[in-house]
Predict the 3D structure of the following.
Amino acid sequence: MNKRYFIGLMSGTSMDGVDAVLVDFSQEHPTLIERHSQDIPKHTLNGLQRLCLPGSDEITRLGQLDRSVGQLFASAVNALLEKANVNKDDVIAIGSHGQTVRHMPNLDMGFTLQIGDPNTIAVETGINVIADFRRKDIALGGQGAPLVPAFHQQMFSKPGTNRIILNIGGIANLTYLPGDEQPVLGFDTGPGNTLIDAWIQQVKSEHYDKDGTWAASGVTDEKLLTQLLSHSYFSMAFPKSTGRELFNQAWLEQQTAAFGHLSEADIQSTLLDVTCHSIVKEVLTLSGDGELFVCGGGAFNIEMMSRLKALLPSYQLSSTATLGMNPQWVEGIAFAWLAMRHHEGLSGNLPAVTGASREAVLGSLFPAI
């Protein structure tokens, strides 16, 4: 059978690197052929983090970073193909999510902005690129996020069983796959790794809390936890989506200012519980029991997984590896899938998830020629 290769590129709100995957869609279920992770260079990362906050001369910085991130993504693709020993001519298209620098769908004129110039990616790889997946959904009145539930539905739904796919990246989002004829639902629950990463970076200059060890050494402060969970986002009805615009370093510093008596580890434990409790609240709203499968970086955080299991005793909880898909690569595969859907003229959004007025083909094509 002829191979049908697509590449997926993903860099999430945690900005912990670019994930590139080569996927074969020639059969009913996609096959992951090769994967590659590429670190974001320090100067590019610093620029992205500054761009995520209001500042001066943003348009010039935005334009330059757009090209820089495009070059980074192209480099990841070329390294991926070299590892896989696959020729660029064998790849139908690249699906590039880009790097989100603003996601504000709830303004009077809502918008979302991802950078990583797809023209640059197309030129430097010699492969057609499909990108800008979110803005069509926003033009149709939707949130533009999350987009992965349509992929989750096709890959992971099981008749007769309520399943939740929980992606814990910088922001946590879930997909509810009911076992009956109810519609699939999906939305951002709130912070995933973004707050615990921000705190350990500030205090210890480490990128992340490996296995959740530091959080496990602390004791959650109930007063701070209650204050953090009082954020209005947690009581919003879905469809809803969020990002660094709400949950960021500045907000964290403001919220913890009156808690200087707490140890740094206690604050880390409390921030981890913000993630866990906000997830659990939404999970139990959807269904009292079922199966829950975790993907994204959070799936590798032992303490986070332990706390989720303790808070959800009526759920069978494991990672998507149980379903045959490595939790690190699920989102990358999803954007390869969205590129395939665009190539075939098929819709990529679920209006019940995003709030869009209709289904639509997502993304725009940037030819390599």
